[in-house]
Amino acid sequence: MAMAEGDLPAFDKALGEVMKLPVYWLARARCRDTDAGDPALWSQPRYDPEDEFVYLNGPCRTE
To answer: Taking 60 as the threshold, does the pLDDT of residue 63 lie above it?
Structure first.
């Protein structure tokens, strides 16, 4: 995933709001992949000064 550095504060805020919703936690509880929420599956954010984007690598799943 990549996003412009300037969009990070809004993304962080939106993500925090989603994680407050009961529907998020219900969906996560139904997920068969017990590692789905493991932070170790995601890379540390990497900033590329050439394109001013922040990159994250994480698991890709079809479910």
So the answer is: no
CB 54 within 8 A of CB 45: yes
State residue 2 phi and psi, 5-degree precision: -135, 145
Predicted confidence band at 49 (pLDDT cuts at 50, 70, 90)?
Answer: very high
Could you tell me if 41 and 56 are in contact, meaning their C-beta atoms sit under 8 angstroms apart? no
Contacts of 61 (CB under 8 A, 6+ apart): 33, 36
Tokens 């990070």: give the residue.
Answer: 8
Q: CA angle at residue 46 from 43 to 47, to 5 degrees?
A: 165
Strand order through the sheet with 53-55: 2-4, 53-55, 46-48
